[in-house]
Design goal:
The protein is 62% helix and 2% strand. The chain has 2 domains: 2-88, no CATH class; 160-474, Glycosyltransferase, CATH 1.50.10. α9 packs antiparallel against α10, α9 (192-212) packs parallel to α11 (268-289) and α13 (314-329) runs antiparallel to α14 (335-346). It starts with a helix and ends with a helix. It has helices spanning 2-12, 27-43, 47-63, 68-81, 101-120, 123-137, 160-172, 175-183, 192-212, 217-233, 268-289, 292-307, 314-329, 335-346, 369-385, 391-414, 421-430, 438-450, 462-474, and strands at residues 84-85, 90-91, 94-95, 243-244, 261-262. The protein is an all-alpha fold.
């Protein structure tokens, strides 16, 4: 076992001696650091990497007492695989959430109370428990558990035609999903939200494509139609959407819409990861292409979401909010009230209102910029849908303003870590007195979307590329 530990350390590479100091390494700290890298390995959906981290956990357990220096070396080697500064709880030069033993114990007591209050719709208790959580976390409230490096870029003036060409080029990077849509056969290892993102981007870009590249519209419509057919085929009878059976759980009878796909029977938050964007995509496409069957499928997803209680994931609640506002736009007379209520209890209370991470969300996962954009989108959706005199509209305006300020803080400090061009453009249109830094934020996000990025983790999404047309039309000479 010890020999395996040493081989693992050698395979992971050397760690600077200064980072291998173990005089302060405790078992709690070792377990917390290993838990972080395990969660990141799982998010990459890499079985080999997950197995590698689990092996390291065993190795650390074996060598910790007799030789903590070897335990530190194993952990530090794993951390370098994920761009974590060994032992420092920092990524990309910035701090990440550090679950100290006191925080772990405190969160263990608070989280069941928060889940119960959310499920009961008890807004006062939700806010009280989150206040206790903020006091427990202190300056760590709103710190994410992972970071991406920032990018800065500049861009020359560009035309609407160039913007659409950039969008069409971006489609090529999603060639496997695009081909699956044209073939009408879903890929066995891709979640349905990938098809939904494609549909939403195609809907966003369609008018500009008609204006600038009309010869491409037929194939884009075929792609959108194929994607919607896949979504409707894999919708579960309760309104949710199936997930690919990546771990071979479907050994017995098929419990999803077709072999190789599973119906989700777990928490509503997990199901919303796909149900939210898939339902939205079907509603948008149903309206754009006059397809009542697609709209009906989207409304089924919204009805399911409305029937679920708020969950402990603020970003999952935000996905429900965005789906319900889309259902309202499609004619569901009950959806807007449900969206406002979900926003009021399941999104707004989680935002940090003061401290170094002001404007982020208190949960370490929802504090990530990718989730932050989902939460900002929900605030914009509620604001745009409600009447001007609605208290919930005023609340959404406050939430959105703080969220945009947090994006501006990040852009000012390190550049763009996750492109958010559609939402920063939308904020400019919705807020008559935005953060004075918003124009620079839009410029930075536009430049990153136009640039060829070396890292695919920094590449803009298709909805970002679709939004370039709006920039070109408004500011064609810049």
């Amino acid at each position: 076992m010890l020999r395996a530990s040493l081989l693992l350390v050698m395979a992971l590479g050397s760690v600077p001696a200064a980072d291998r100091s173990t005089s302060q390494l405790s078992r709690d700290e070792a377990e917390a650091r290993l838990a972080l890298v395990l969660s990141m390995a799982r998010e990459r959906n890499d079985r080999d990497l997950v197995a590698r981290v689990r092996l390291a956990q065993e190795q650390v357990g074996d060598v910790f007492a007799p030789d903590p220096a070897k335990a530190e070396a194993i952990i530090a080697g794993l951390e370098t695989l994920f761009a974590i500064e060994p032992g420092r709880w920092r990524m990309a030069g910035r701090p990440v959430f550090h679950p100290t033993p006191a925080i772990v114990v405190g969160m263990g007591a608070l989280e069941p109370r928060l889940r119960a209050a959310l499920a009961a719709g008890d807004e006062a208790t939700v806010r009280a428990v989150i206040g206790e959580l903020a006091a427990l976390l202190g300056d760590q409230a709103g710190l994410p558990d992972s970071r991406r490096p920032g990018v800065r870029a500049t861009h020359a003036p560009f035309t609407p035609a160039a913007a659409i060409d950039r969008f069409l080029d971006g489609l090529l990077t999603h060639g496997d999903v695009v081909q699956a849509c044209l073939d009408g056969e879903p890929l066995p290892d891709r979640p349905l939200r990938d098809y939904a993102a494609l549909v939403l981007a195609l809907c966003d870009a369609r008018i500009a494509v008609l204006a600038e590249r009309p010869d491409r519209i037929d194939v884009l419509d075929r792609i959108a139609g194929g994607a919607c057919a896949i979504l409707t085929t894999l919708q579960v009878t309760n309104g949710t959407f199936a997930v690919p059976d990546l771990r071979g759980k479907q050994a017995g009878p098929v419990d999803g819409p077709r072999p190789g796909w599973l119906a989700i029977s777990g928490a509503a938050g997990e199901a919303l990861i796909d149900a939210g964007p898939c339902g939205q995509a079907l509603l948008r496409a149903g309206a754009l292409y006059d397809r009542a069957d697609w709209s009906a499928a989207g409304l089924r997803a919204a009805a399911w979401a409305a029937a679920q209680p708020a969950c402990s994931s603020f970003s999952a609640n935000a996905l429900a909010v965005s789906l319900l506002t889309a259902a309202h736009a499609a004619g569901d007379s009950t959806a807007l009230a449900a969206a406002a209520a979900r926003f009021r209890i399941g999104v707004a209370p989680g935002q940090v209102v003061d401290g170094p991470q002001r404007g982020r969300w208190i949960d370490r996962r929802d504090a990530r910029t990718a989730q932050h954009i989902v939460l900002l989108r929900a605030a914009h959706d509620v604001f745009a849908a409600l009447d001007a005199d609605s208290p919930d509209r005023a609340l959404a305006a406050q939430i959105a303003a703080r969220a945009v300020a947090a994006l501006a803080d990040e852009a000012q400090d390190v550049g763009v870590t996750v492109p958010a061009l559609p939402e920063v453009l939308r904020h400019r249109a919705l807020d008559p007195t935005p953060d004075p830094r918003l124009a620079e934020v839009i410029r930075l996000h536009t430049a990153v979307c136009l640039a060829d990025q070396a890292s695919p983790r920094l590449a803009p999404e298709l909805d970002d590329l679709a939004a370039l047309s709006a920039v070109a039309q408004r500011e064609p000479q810049r």
